[in-house]
Queue: 4 jobs
Job 1
Amino acid sequence: MQITELKLSNFRNYQHQKFIFSKEKNIIIGNNGSGKTNIVEAIYYLSITKSFRTNNDDIVIKEGEDLATVEGIIKTKLTNKYKIVISKTGKKVFIDQDSIPKLSDYISKINIILFNPEDLKLIKDNPSTHRKLINMELSILNNIYLKILSNYNKILKQRNTYLKSMMVNSMIPKDYLDILTDKLIDYGLQIFKIRTKFIDDINEYLNINYQKITKKEGLTLKYISDYTNLTKNELVKKYQKLLKKDINYGKTHLGIHLDDFIYFFNDHYAKDYLSEGEQKNAVISFKLAEVKVFQKQTGTMPILVLDDLFSELDQEKITRIIKFFKKNIQIFITTTDLKKIDEKILSNSKVFTIKKGKIEEKTYE
């Protein structure tokens, strides 16, 4: 999978800008604040219809404008044109000029794996952040997962609303709650199955990647869930035992909405045991494992975006990471300094240098 062309209109600091990309390596150089990350943000936006930097869509619209557009030509076995129009009232998506009514029918068409320094939250932050980031990865990979997760969240919201009604009025019948609980368990078991397979597939490559980068081993990602090793009947009983607590608090205390994904290094919590640099290498190892998982499940290589990868990494580790790069994967790298890029990466790459709002292009043979 490749993005051959990108057009931006009123997106961040770009009023009208067109990019023609290399099918192999694309390096974007610029000082902090120059707009280099805005380019890869637009590529990611084209895939997931969201930014990896903000939850507020209005922010990506250039100041003083009413709407922004991101257009891209994506090449797999076929070539298709994708377009997103972002306005203050919402966004619309198109594939080959055809309007797609539901965002869930658009997402997962473009497979992108992004590394960004914020991804350290996969290790450092709380379970809610861990779930959010894993959900984003799975939504890009699996459109079915996205729809099941949406259904689960709708039922969860309905169940919590009904629990609050029961808290206020003890005479409200329990029958409807049982129906909601049954649906919640069904969707939850489907999500649990998909998450379990994904984490198992990641762990097939995770420690191997980490060992190749750091010369150390022992990294695993563990999936923690209330649903582990339980049948539907056993889950029904657990929900029944928690019924009084759920009613008293007006919320559901059991389910995949409470799952967590925790990195361990030789049975130690990675967030406590590994240094900042080692944690960064752990996340890079995860992203590189994703490349393999995406390739196996979709039959095509994803697009790999490495935003500010080379800051705080020594040259030896950078060289080891380079060895993972294959000719059949399209890569985008942002950096503040070309000197941080090894000559092996520069070969067969296209370099975009941003200076004072202007973009200079150079192709290295």
Job 2
Amino acid sequence: MGPLFKQQPKVTAPLRSVQRLSTKKKQDYFWAYLFIFPTLLGTVLFNLGPVLYTVYLSFTEWGAFGNSTWGGLVNYKKILNDPVFVSSLKNTLIFTVLSVPLSIALSTVVAQLLNQQIRGVSVYRTLFFLPVVTMPAAIGIVWRWLYNADFGIINYLLNLFHIKPVGWLIDGNIALYSIIVVAIWGAIGYNMVIILAGLQNISPQFYEAASIDGAGMFTKFFQITVPLLTPTLFFVTIISMINALQTFELIFMMIGPDSLVIRDTQTLVFMFYKEAFINNDKGYGSAISLVLFLMILILTIIQFKWQKKWVHYS
């Protein structure tokens, strides 16, 4: 008979294997964190740091010579009673509500047309995309000349039809809408490229099956193209809304801070720039920027919620 209790086998080898594996994982983590450390450090210093400092500044009051003191909610109370802020908020919302849907609608139509097999389609795509690679300052200067009330090309063409000159940028009633036209023109190229990529991902078999069933051009567009293009349109809507709410360059270049119609055209970002860097009230300017940030955040969350609900019921 053998022994009553057999000798248990040694487990030294498996333990060493596990230990080696654990050591290798530690080395992998070390090198991974070492490689991402420069990017992480840059993100903290140049992104997170300024955000936290802006939050701090929004609770401070600034004097005439750059001295700041803790003011608590003074700046936020000032926002609630500031008619200039209300006017800037109104201009921002008008700019966003008009420019975003119109630019996306026109971009979708242009993308649909440029998705066809036509001669010279690459040239047309390049021409529509040119405003995207052009500096906003250059666009603002060129359109400012086009809109000039005395010697602008647009008023010259209107004069050929015996129409009186229009003060596109000096009339407070239409100056904002003139800038919206330029913003829509400049956004079509970027949106068109993204929507065109979404269109090219739609299988031609859907359109072939619809043609067999006798579907027309508009039926194919609204029953096939639009539903399958929804994720792309949602992305474009989010990006366009955020860009519209942060509009600054066109207003700065086409109107300017000293214009008589700046009150009728300035957005929240322009008001932030004026308060923080012209009036040197960085506390109030920081409060305005945080309010704009919260507004963008809330609107984006609402759009995500709406998108999920729309997909669920569609």
Job 3
Amino acid sequence: MKIASFGAAIAALLLLGGCSGAQFRLPDISSADVDRAALTVSGDSSRLEKFQRTDAQYRTMVFDVSHRLAEAAPALCRYAEVSNCRFSVSFSSEDEVNAYATANNEIVVYRGLLELLETEDEFAAVIAHEIGHHLAQHIDETQTNATIGAIIGGVLAGGAMIALGYDSAYYQNQKMMEDSMNLGASIGVLSYSKEQEREADLLAAYLLDRAGYDLHEAGRVWEVLAKVNGRTSSGMLDSHPAGPERMVAWNLAIAEVEASKTKLPVTD
């Protein structure tokens, strides 16, 4: 019996992509537009300006922005069929360039990211993006994908051990199984994450518009992150779209929001 190659195993795991997908229609992105956008973000990221504020100022800005977005969110929550439309947003004084959404509608934003942002519109884009993950129920999706990926990884490892007549010590069998399940879980998460990020950006654009923020000003955050990251293209195992791709998608989202009569995203 032949053992499936690693590449075939990866392909099998990526079939998870058929289990779910974007709930809302995402703008189509052309490679030509991405190439043009890549030219605008080249350069030394260390030269990015930092806007110094006290932690108290950051906390006040995060609170004010979160309150304004929360007031604009209920219509989108109802549309996305999200029952809990209350979000807890907290500020971390760590220097990491990061923000993330967790279970229980919690959001954390870091000083390291906020100090690269100049305007309240940019602050709002960061928080609205994380709210977008909650609106699209990405956390539940990711947990499900990781579980399915781990199961498939375990099945592949078990088949390999049977085919090889694997008879070494039990702990070695166990280690092989655990490693395969961990790999499967990781790929299960990555199989959707770029799509999830784009969907969260799209929902953020609608939320920001409803809250009265300037979408063009807000979009500078994606240019900043593109310069920090330095990637100009996305690979299969990247967890986020590359910066230029994200910038193009944001401009298309702006056009979609401005043309929308309902100020609600189109469902797939």
Job 4
Amino acid sequence: MPKFQVYKDASGKTRFRLRANNNKIVAVGEAYEQHASCINGIRSIQKNAGAPIEDLTVEGGPTLPNPKYQIYKDTSGEFRFRLKASNGEVIAQGEGYESIEGCLNGIEVVKKSVSATIEDPFSSNKAEPESQIDAKTEATPEPPQPEPKPEATMPEEEKEDQTPTAPILSVTREVVQDYGPVETVIELYPVSSNIPKGDKIALQGKLLRIGTKQGISGAKIHIFERDRSILGDDYLAFGNTTADGSFNIYWKARPLSWRKDTGDIYAIFRGNEKAKPSKSPIQTIAIK
């Protein structure tokens, strides 16, 4: 599970950083004068974590509205990302990566930070050690409940759990849930029937749970061209699904066969520990 760490920089301002499971720093925030503003910055990242990705390294790619991730190259040629809120403010900056795949993996860590723990040594809301909590629970008997009055026969109203998404606590209790793996279906939306050679096109679709039609986030999707020869199918491009299960993968159009200007493409999800693999129907495209 990723975690946020709140700390003070050399100038005394409050900052945060996001660490992955391997303790590597994936993203950092801005410097804040107030502690509360820093916590609000973390909450903003968690709120916008499922935003789509805009790849500025692809020429002619579409411009997406905020909130969004932006992938770009820095002056040293490394791939980086930044997360913009709905007002266009940059709320997180990623580290430098040698490949775009590494950059996409960093974004996936941010996407999983929705329920990340916040390590905050400056918070006044400190949790007691777990052993002390349990000891108090055992030492203090529960007071006897009064017998219900005859007229109070209405069932008690079920109250919504108001626990914050990521409580600022030093003690967390992990809840293990069994999700599957679930059956999936992948959709590859139709593309233009005649695509100019060299154009950057978006191959879009969605990965869903069968039955509930709920989107599956953080899944890697590959696009292939079906090749009827013994060489096997040709790999074209890959991308990852967003919070609602949708994907938007860019591909530079090229002839798919030396014999003709048409080809058959499909999207495939190879599965993971929570979801079973699936493959989209074949569709034919033509390259001018």
